[in-house]
Amino acid sequence: MTKYVKIYKCSDNSLVGDKIRVADTFWTRFKGLMLAPDLKEGEGLIITPCNSIHMMFMRYPIDAVFIDASNKIVALYENLRPWIGLTKLYSNVVSVIELPSGLVNKLGLKIDDSLRLEYLQ
User: Which tens digit of pLDDT belongs to each residue from 4-32?
Assistant: First the structure.
């Protein structure tokens, strides 16, 4: 059964995404967004646990938000390109949120911003 989460930026309660798919099993983390169709507005993927990503077998660019155990943004990657994008490994990161390219800039997300996650049933 697919799980989803809504994510908000705490400082202004702005919606980051209302249909963020949760990848929290070996298979869903392994698959990620590889070969998936483009993300639409409000969509994304949160990979947990995760502290680094690659863009192999991706069809489109994405933005990536790396968060720690308190849901504080530790690192941001914008417009990670398909096939060649790669991030560094972060020891203090527990999850990575993959979003449509351009959303980090559009929402004004910054390092140290806090996010609120609401898991949906």
Answer: 999 999 999 999 999 999 999 999 999 99
Give dist(CA 32, CA 57) in Å, integer.
Answer: 10
Largest CA distance in the chain: 35
Predicted structure pTM score: 0.96
Cis bond upstream, residue 49 (ω within 30)? yes
DSSP string, the chain: ---EEEEEETTTTEEEEEEEEEE-SHHHHHHTTTTPPPPPTTEEEEESS-S--B-TT-SS-EEEEEE-TTSBEEEEEEEEPTTT-B----TT--EEEEEETTHHHHHT--TT-BEEEEEE-
CB–CB of 51/73 below 8 Å? no
- Closest-CA residue to 38 (of 4, 94, 83, 82): 82
Q: What is the distance of C-alpha 10 from the center of its chain?
A: 16
